[in-house]
Design goal:
This protein has 13 helices and eleven strands. It is an alpha/beta fold and 328 residues long. The chain has a three-stranded mixed β-sheet with strand order 2-8-7, with helices on both faces. A three-stranded parallel β-sheet has the order 4-5-6, sandwiched between helices. It is flat. The protein starts with a strand and ends with a strand.
Length: 328
């Protein structure tokens, strides 16, 4: 693969099904996560080896990185380095990304060095931040591990500043109990050291699942001892990695999940639905998910004093069921 492939995956959320059932919604629309499948890179990519420059260009545009790592043995599937070693594979990629960022940081330092020495306060602040990032990268430390006070706004665009999640591609035999697989355990130990999550998934199993209808999928997963597909687990993990939360709109026509960022306020959430909602925002009618379920819908929540009227600056909570009032 040279050009990246894009896939939009629905985020499985049982809360949405429950809301739809209570409200008798005709349609259920989950929120989604967009995945960009980028061609792998090889040692020397930071110097342009293989598809290095294209890979680095594509990956700079994403919000978070999911690193797919081989964690299965199969003599019929060759490995470019001769044998399976997930930690080695991760370290090869990590090194290339660190070197790519180091090159960007050092070029920027060269560009603003004269301004920083001349006493320009803004340039001096940036140069000092770049110095600390240069030291970290040279020592093999990703920018994401530095505090925001150190990097300030100057880490924007750097690859190693992006949050990361590892996807351990295990064999079909290991997918139900990945914690017993040697390669997966090695990857998980590495990830724990850098504070990253690991999601197990079998590429072979997922390929087979994609060929089945819904009923057959459920039976197939049960036979493997799985409650859900790896892709569903991955979509949720990606959602969490991006620090996203979900709020809902519910009615007889549809029950729908919407995504906003942690810390977003009501007027921002309204704008996720339509810009007119934010522009003419009057108020938000809010019911917590648990209250909506407990009192069996909006009427019951209202009667029991669990429907709140909130203004523009209300901090949205994951699971809020919201109805927005606005002027056209």
């Amino acid at each position: 693969t040279i050009e990246p492939n894009t896939g939009v995956v629905p985020v499985s959320d049982p809360r949405l099904d429950e809301l739809a059932k209570i409200s008798g919604s005709q349609k259920i629309i989950p929120t989604t996560v967009e995945f960009l499948d980028i061609a792998g890179l090889v040692k020397g990519a930071s110097q342009g080896e293989g598809l290095g420059n294209q890979f680095l260009g594509h990956i700079r545009g994403v919000d978070a990185i999911i690193h797919v790592v081989r964690c299965f043995d199969d003599e019929n599937v060759t490995h470019v380095d001769g044998g399976v070693d997930p930690v080695r594979d991760v370290e090869v990629i990590d090194t290339e990304l660190l070197l790519a960022d180091l090159s960007v940081v050092e070029k920027r330092m060269e560009k603003i060095a004269r301004m920083a020495r001349s006493g320009d306060k803004e340039a001096r602040a940036e140069y000092e931040a770049l110095q600390q990032m240069q030291q970290a990268l040279s020592a093999g430390k990703a920018i994401r591990l530095l505090s925001s006070e150190v990097v300030g706004p100057y880490a924007a665009g750097l690859i190693t500043s992006k949050p990361i999640l590892f996807l351990g591609n295990v064999s079909e035999d290991d997918v139900s109990e990945p914690e017993k697989a040697v390669h997966f355990c090695a990857l998980r130990s590495y990830a724990e050291k850098i504070g990253a999550e690991v999601v197990p998934l079998s590429g072979k199993v997922e390929s087979e699942i994609s060929q089945l209808d819904e009923a057959e999928r459920e039976e197939f997963l049960r036979d493997l001892g799985l409650a859900e597909s790896g892709l569903r687990r991955l979509s949720r993990a990606g959602h969490n990695l991006l620090k996203l939360i979900t709020f809902f709109t519910v009615g007889p026509k549809e029950a729908r999940a919407w995504t906003c960022e942690q810390g977003d306020v009501a007027v921002t959430a309204a704008g996720k639905i339509h810009s007119d909602f934010a522009r003419g925002f009057i108020r938000a009618e809010v019911i917590a998910f648990d209250d909506f379920v407990k009192f069996r819908g909006e009427s019951g929540a209202r009667e029991n004093g669990k429907l709140r009227l909130e203004g523009k600056e209300y901090l949205v909570v994951d699971g809020d069921v919201m109805h927005f009032r606005f002027n056209v």
